[in-house]
C-alpha cells in the first residue's frame, strides 16, 4: 500500500477481537456483542472449554457457524496456547481435529503460542511437535503462525528465525504481536520490514515501556498507529486483532472501551 493511499479510518472496518481460554461469556452472546460493537472478526481459542475439539459436536459447531453468519462476523484464526511440551505432545490429535474445526469456521490459520521456556530449554520437543503439525497443515491447506512471546520457547525473532530455517517449505507464518514485539525486539517497524513476507496475522494492544502488557490501545506507551502503517506499507492486508488482558475488567466493558479508543486512534 502506497503511503498516500493509507486512510487510518479504514482500520475500523478491519478490527478483530481475540477470545481467550478464560473468556466466561456464552460464545453466541459474545459474537452478538462484538458485532454490535463494530468488530469485523474474532479469533477463537482451542483452549476454551466450549471449543475443545475432542468434545465439540457437529450440532454445536453448526450453531456457532449460524451465529457468525447471522451477525456478519468472520473468524480470523483459531489459536492454541501450549501449557508445556508434554501437554502439546498429548494434544496433537486434538490439535489436528482443531485444524478441521478452523477450516469448518472459515479460517485456514492456526496460531500457536509455544510452551514456557523452562519446560523445554533446548526447544527440541517444540521443534519436533511443530514439524508434525506443519506437515499435517500442509496436507489439509492450513497455515500455522507462531506468536513469539516473552519467556516461551519461541521467545522472539531470533528463535523464530531458527525455527523457520528448520521448517523451510512448510506452511509456517509469523503472528506479528505488537506488544510482544516491542518487549522482545524494541523496534517494531524494523521487525515488520525484515519479516513482512512471513507475517500472516497481526495482534494489537498497548503496553507500558519494556513491560509484557496487553493493554487497551491508548493506555500505554506504544505507537500503535505507526506499527499499523508499517504493516500496511509492507502489504499486510489482514485484520488487526485486539489481544487484551481482562485485569478484572468485564468483557463487555473492555470490548466497548477498546473500540472507542480505536476510533480515536484511527481517525
Summed up:
The chain is an alpha/beta fold and 267 residues long. It has helices spanning 27-37, 58-70, 85-90, 92-104, 124-140, 157-166, 178-184, 188-195, 224-233, 251-265; strands at residues 15-18, 41-45, 74-81, 109-113, 143-146, 172-177, 199-204, 240-242. Strands 1-2-3-4-5-6-7-8 form an eight-stranded parallel barrel, surrounded by four helices.
Description:
It is a single chain. By secondary structure, the chain is of the alpha/beta class. The protein has one domain (3-265): TIM Barrel. Helix content is 41%, strand content 15%. The protein has ten helices and eight strands. It has helices at residues 27-37, 58-70, 85-90, 92-104, 124-140, 157-166, 178-184, 188-195, 224-233, 251-265; strands spanning 15-18, 41-45, 74-81, 109-113, 143-146, 172-177, 199-204, 240-242. Strands 1-2-3-4-5-6-7-8 form an eight-stranded parallel beta barrel, surrounded by four helices.
- Tally of discrete structural domains: 1
What's the shape? globular
Output the CATH class name: Alpha Beta
Instruction: For the record, give the distance between the C-alpha atoms at the N and C termini, rounded to a whole number.
Output: 18 Å
Mean pLDDT, to the nearest integer, reads 92
* Shape-level CATH architecture: Alpha-Beta Barrel
Ordered list of secondary-structure elements with their pairings:
Elements: E1 15-18, H1 27-37, E2 41-45, H2 58-70, E3 74-81, H3 85-90, H4 92-104, E4 109-113, H5 124-140, E5 143-146, H6 157-166, E6 172-177, H7 178-184, H8 188-195, E7 199-204, H9 224-233, E8 240-242, H10 251-265
Parallel strand pairs: 1-2, 1-8, 2-3, 3-4, 4-5, 5-6, 6-7, 7-8
Amino acid at each position: 500500500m502506497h503511503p498516500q493511499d493509507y486512510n487510518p479510518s479504514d482500520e475500523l472496518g478491519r478490527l478483530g477481537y481475540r477470545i481467550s481460554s478464560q473468556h466466561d461469556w456464552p460464545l453466541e452472546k459474545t459474537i452478538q456483542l462484538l458485532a454490535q460493537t463494530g468488530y469485523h472478526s474474532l479469533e477463537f481459542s482451542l483452549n476454551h472449554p466450549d471449543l475443545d475439539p475432542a468434545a465439540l459436536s457437529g450440532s454445536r459447531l453448526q450453531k456457532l457457524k449460524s451465529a457468525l453468519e447471522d451477525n456478519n462476523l468472520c473468524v480470523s484464526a483459531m489459536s492454541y496456547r501450549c501449557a508445556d511440551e508434554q501437554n502439546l505432545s498429548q494434544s496433537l490429535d486434538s490439535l489436528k481435529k482443531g485444524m478441521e474445526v478452523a477450516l469448518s469456521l472459515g479460517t485456514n490459520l492456526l496460531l500457536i503460542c509455544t510452551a514456557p521456556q523452562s519446560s523445554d530449554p533446548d526447544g527440541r520437543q517444540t521443534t519436533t511437535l511443530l514439524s508434525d503439525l506443519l506437515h499435517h497443515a500442509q496436507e489439509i491447506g492450513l497455515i500455522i503462525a507462531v506468536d513469539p512471546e516473552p519467556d516461551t520457547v519461541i521467545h522472539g525473532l531470533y528463535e523464530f528465525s531458527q525455527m523457520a530455517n528448520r521448517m523451510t517449505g512448510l506452511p509456517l507464518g509469523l503472528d506479528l504481536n505488537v506488544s510482544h514485539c516491542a518487549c522482545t525486539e524494541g523496534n517494531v517497524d524494523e521487525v515488520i520490514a525484515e519479516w513482512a513476507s512471513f507475517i500472516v496475522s497481526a495482534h494489537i494492544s498497548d503496553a507500558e515501556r519494556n513491560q509484557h502488557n496487553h493493554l487497551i490501545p491508548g493506555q500505554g506507551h506504544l505507537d500503535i498507529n505507526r506499527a499499523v502503517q508499517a504493516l500496511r506499507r509492507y502489504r499486510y492486508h489482514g485484520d488487526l486483532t485486539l489481544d487484551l488482558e481482562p485485569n478484572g475488567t468485564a468483557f463487555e466493558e473492555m470490548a466497548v472501551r477498546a473500540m472507542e479508543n480505536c476510533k480515536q486512534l484511527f481517525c
